[in-house]
Amino acid sequence: MNQIAADRSPLLPDRHPTPDFFVCDVFDAVPKADMASMEHPIFALSTKPDRHVRRYEHGDSYVEIKPSADGLATVHDRDILIYCISQVIAAMNAGEQVSQVIRFKAHDLLKATNRMTNGRGYEGLKAALERLSGTRISTNVITGGEETFETFGLIERAKVVRETRDGRMQEVEVKLSDWVFNAVRQNEVLTLSRNYFRLRKPIERRIYELARKHCGRQREWKISLELLQKKSGATSSAREFRRLVSNIVKEDQLHHHMPDYAVTLDEEDMVVFINRGTIGASDSADEETDIDIPNLRPETYEEARLAAPGWDIYLLEQEWRGWIIEPPRHADAAFLGFCRKWFEKRGRPG
Known about the structure:
The structure is a single chain. Helices cover about 35% and strands about 20% of the residues. The protein has helices spanning about 1-5, 80-95, 105-110, 120-135, 180-185, 200-215, 225-230, 240-255, 300-305, 315-325, 330-345, and strands at about 20-25, 55-60, 60-65, 100-105, 135-145, 145-155, 155-165, 170-175, 190, 220-225, 260-265, 270-275. A four-stranded antiparallel β-sheet has the order 2-3-5-6. A three-stranded antiparallel β-sheet has the order 4-8-7. Strand 2 and strand 3 (about 60-65) form a beta hairpin. Helix 9 packs parallel to helix 11 (about 330-345). The longest helix has 18 residues, at about 240-255. The radius of gyration is 21 Å and the shape is globular. The protein starts with a helix and ends with a helix.
């Protein structure tokens, strides 16, 4: 029995072969004040209704994610957003006029996102639309001594255009929020592997998204287990999260199922993502990884800890790689300079 479980692929069956898809990180559209590092999770990882309000703070700015009575939108609900975003991107690439309103056949979405096309699949789609519409995001942005407050949903509304006699929806109309639509029009998108929709576990999907955003075309990307848990939105204990990641690592070593990046966990509880070389060089949407910055020397991290005491140096490396606009002549020296300025401006965390 154990051997059968070990031999079974962690991926879901490829029910309906599909092309690549695009996803946008909604926080990439936040005005660049003190919110540049807002890669915090919006979507719940649990399959049970999550009705907890999430609040993330960075300096004087914050973001709150508030669920409806149905709970927060889940990682699997995000499939609908990914599908809609991909429709907009395809229209833009074809030189067509784009709109916040996307109309599609429910059957096409279910096939594209590798879902079952039976009654259960249609019921799940309706429930996902309700959670996406009900999840609200509130944020403030402070610039020039003024504070601006904004609240919005992931989608503004959804409408089932027609239903057949047996209750299955045929056509659906979704209106994206201004926030999401603006992010798409500004090309704040990344291409996702088609195997994203075959990942069974919500935590695998979230971890892949983070690797896709931060590793991109780099050879590898490291993040501490503690910070990965924070960014993933997992609410389990640190011990349980370590067990979950360890299982993913073991399965990936056996089946190579994680898209685009192999994942390992070292003795210092650093999660390492290694590029499999499957991301095409023509992926111009991936803005964060167009700059080729070499890996830093191990001793640079030690010097960085002295330059910015108390800070997670791997978090600072992510900030630096996202902030830099051209390849530095001496990457290690440039990173250390960034750490010194970071500490001069902010001091110790907390």
